[in-house]
Structures are given as C-alpha cells and as structure tokens.
Amino acid sequence: MARPLSVPQRDALEIIADAKVAAYGMDRHDRIVYWNEGASRVLGWSPEEVLGKMCFDVLAGRDVFGNLYCMRDCPSVRAAVAEGNMQPFLLEVKKKGSTAPTKTIVRAVSLPAPGPSIRYMSHSDLSRSSGIDARSPASSR
Question: Is a pLDDT exceeding 80 seen at residue 46?
Fold first, then answer.
C-alpha cells in the first residue's frame, strides 16, 4: 500500500501543478506517480497513459551525444536523492506522436520528507522557449 503524502509534499505538488513547465514525479522504483498539464503539453502523453509506468520506458532519454541516459536506477534521480537536487542538464526525450526527439533542459529535485520517496523532474522544451530550431545542430544550417 502506498504511503500517504506528507503536508510539505502535498504543498510542493500543488505548486508544481500550477507551474507552466512539464513536471512529473517518480517513486523510489522509478514509476511515474505524478504528471502535470505541462508534461502533457510538452511530452504529449496524458496522465492516464503514463501513471504507474517506468519513467525510462516512457521518456527513453538520451544525452546530447545520443547515448541512452534514461534507464533503471536513473543517474539523475539517484543524484537528486543524494543531494536533494542537481544542476540542470540537456536531455533529448521521446514525445508522443513525433519521430524527432524533443530537446529539454531537465531539473531533478527530491520532495521534502517525511513521506514516501518521491522525486520530481521538470522539463523545459528548448524548441519552444528559445526561438531557435533545437532539433539538431545540422537543422540550423
């Protein structure tokens, strides 16, 4: 049975829900347990399609060199747990209905304790926010 959220965790999720960025949360097993409207807008999936699924299966993120980054025991999630948060980084993720990856800046943060172990990640879609074509270096030539 899932542990109930603590008051600080509920407060944090309420703030995240209102954010314009794509934000989602994972439990300690990397299952998606939270998905906001921004995540649906930027990444294309509805909450019903992703809740309970493994984060790495949904996003299939790769670093800027094309190396698989999203995997079981996610390095960014582990860093967020160890440090409480981590520096933003660039990640290419799958977007539903698109063959081209979406370049995003990812931020990973652990929600405050006590309560179940939940980490959230936010994605900022570079192709929408920067005004540049962020699909690939070759696409800007």
Answer: yes
Beta strands in 10-140 (DSSP E): 22-26, 32-35, 89-93, 102-110, 119-125
CB contact at 8 A, 110 and 81: yes
Ranges of beta strands (E only) in the chain are 22-26, 32-35, 89-93, 102-110, 119-125
- Reference 42, options 21, 15, 66; nearest CA is 21
Distance of CA 110 to the CA centre of its chain: 12
The CATH architecture assigned to 7-140 reads 2-Layer Sandwich (3.30)
Q: In angstroms, what CA-CA distances link 6 with 24, 41, 45?
A: 18, 28, 27
pLDDT, tens only, 109-118: 777 665 555 6
Helix (H, G, I), strand (E, B) or coil at 96: coil
